[in-house]
Design goal:
heterodimer; A: about 260 residues; alpha+beta; rod-shaped; B: about 230 residues; mainly alpha; 2 strands; about 65% helix
């Protein structure tokens, strides 16, 4: 008989014991260890996934920030460029206007100095010219010239128009200190008498005529009474020449500036 | 020459006899238990693990995957039974490489014991899974089929026992015969074939056991419309 029933029963028991032992020492611990490892791996994977997600989020955040920064940077840069350009233009404008103003001032000052210098030269020129003229005339004057001057004066006195005559009459009337005839030379007696006569003809009242010699008249005669004056002298001509010269120079100077 | 190790009696006390089958079974049990304990007492749940742990994990994972594939269910409840069947038969067969060793699976008593275990386990798993309605499947497709179903159940159990016994016993005997005819080289090749056959037999036994158990516990999937083979013998 190949089957020994005692052995069969013993083997059944043995097998059941082995099932228990292996469950206790093999399957249980091994499965537990594998589950644990799987759990750990799952946890680590989950952790890694979370970290990856966080990293991605952070990367996204950083990218976003970078983009914003770039945009702001660009904006600020362009704004600064604009401002700098505007400032540059403004500064150039300011500098130009400053330079223009300075140049104008300088030109003005130079022009003024030039003018002053020219005026001075002109004045001196006129002054010297007149002085030379005065001196020349003074040196040239002689009796004939004095007679001729006296006759011209007398002629002028005779030929005065009615208005002038009227004014002269009024002046004689109001003159308290009398009539004064200044001359650069001594008037000859005849001529003096003629002058007195002509003046006397103007009024019925007696008049007192005083003859005085004034060297500054250079060469000439003048009648002065109460604000009125009838004269012929070189000094007047020279003065009027000087006046007109001065006026002409001034006018020219103004025109030039 | 012994056809079965049962006949090698080491100790006898009345009806209780200690034969080579039981002794070698105990040796295998001790070897497996101690081996498991040595490996599993310092298990690592980290990603770095020892070679032995790796080996055991590969074995257990392989068995679980196989069970899951066959039963289509969570392998947890079947693992201890089916896994132990496979490991015990495999170790028992592989150790036949050791001279003087008689594989307990070469004893009809052992294979019968294992077959009886499967025979009992099938209804137990079936009842746990489906309740007493498990027995209804013996009357399908008709009540007339009840005796045939029972005969089928018994015959497949006997076939299970006989297949394993026949293969292992024949392997051992062939090796012994060849050793006496051509003592050089040829017995070594046959021994190597014997190892392969032993491993295949362990696989076949465990797979069939699982198929029988799964067939008995598959009522829910059937109701939900899944197409499943009722049994395969």
């Amino acid at each position: 008989m190949l089957i020994d029933w005692f052995t069969v029963i013993a083997q059944i028991i043995n097998f059941l014991v082995l099932v228990y032992l292996l469950k206790r020492f093999l399957y249980g611990p091994i499965i537990k260890a594998m589950d644990k490892r799987q759990e750990k791996i799952a946890l680590r994977l989950e952790g890694a996934r979370k970290k990856k997600q966080e990293a991605e989020q952070e990367a996204e955040l950083f990218l976003q920030k970078n983009r914003e920064f770039d945009t702001r940077h660009e904006e600020m840069l362009s704004q600064i460029k604009k401002e700098a350009e505007a400032r540059r233009v403004e500064l150039i404008k300011e500098a130009r206007s400053q330079v223009d103003a300075d140049m104008a001032r300088w030109y003005g000052a130079i022009q003024k100095e030039k003018e002053t210098f020219l005026q001075d030269i002109r004045r001196r020129t006129v002054g010297h010219t007149c002085a030379i003229a005065r001196r020349a005339i003074k040196e040239l004057s002689n009796e004939d010239l004095e007679n001729r001057i006296t006759s011209i004066f007398i002629e002028r006195l005779q030929n005065i128009d009615s208005n002038e005559r009227e004014a002269l009459v009024q002046a004689i009337k109001h003159s308290m200190e009398g009539i004064r005839v200044n001359s650069s030379f001594e008037i000859p007696g005849e001529s003096a008498k003629e002058i007195v006569r002509l003046l006397q003809n103007l009024t019925t009242d007696p008049i007192a005529v005083r003859f005085e010699i004034l060297p500054e008249l250079i060469c000439g005669i003048e009648l002065k009474l109460h604000g009125r004056k009838i004269s012929w002298n070189i000094a007047d001509y020279l003065e009027s020449f000087e006046e007109s010269m001065r006026a002409a120079i001034e006018a020219k100077g103004i025109k030039e500036t | 020459m012994h056809i079965t190790p049962d006949s090698i009696i080491l100790f006898q006390l009345g009806p209780v006899s200690l034969n080579a089958t039981i002794l070698f079974t105990w040796c295998i049990m001790a070897l497996m238990t101690v081996g498991s304990w040595l490996v599993t007492r310092k298990l690592s749940s980290a990603t770095r693990l020892s070679r032995w742990q790796n080996l055991l994990e590969v074995l257990v994972t392989g068995i679980r995957d196989e069970i899951r594939e066959i039963s289509g269910q969570d392998p947890g409840r079947y693992l201890s039974f089916v896994g132990t069947l496979f490991l015990f038969i495999a170790v028992s067969n592989l150790l036949s490489i050791i001279p003087g060793y008689n594989p307990p699976t070469g004893s009809l008593s052992t294979t019968a014991a294992l077959a009886v275990c499967v025979f009992i386990a099938v209804p137990i798993y079936g009842i746990t899974q489906k309740g007493l309605s498990y027995f209804k499947q013996y009357t399908k497709p008709s009540v007339l089929m009840l005796p045939f179903n029972i005969i089928g159940e018994i015959s497949r159990t006997i076939a299970l026992a006989m297949r394993l016994f026949g293969n292992i016993m024949s392997g051992t005997i062939i090796a012994a015969i060849l050793l006496s005819i051509t003592p050089l080289i040829f017995p070594v090749i046959m021994q190597a074939f014997g190892l392969l056959i032993g491993l295949i037999q362990a696989y076949i036994f465990a797979i069939l056991a699982m198929v029988y158990i799964a067939a008995g516990a598959r009522v829910r999937q059937n109701k939900s419309g899944r197409v499943v083979e009722s049994s395969s013998s």
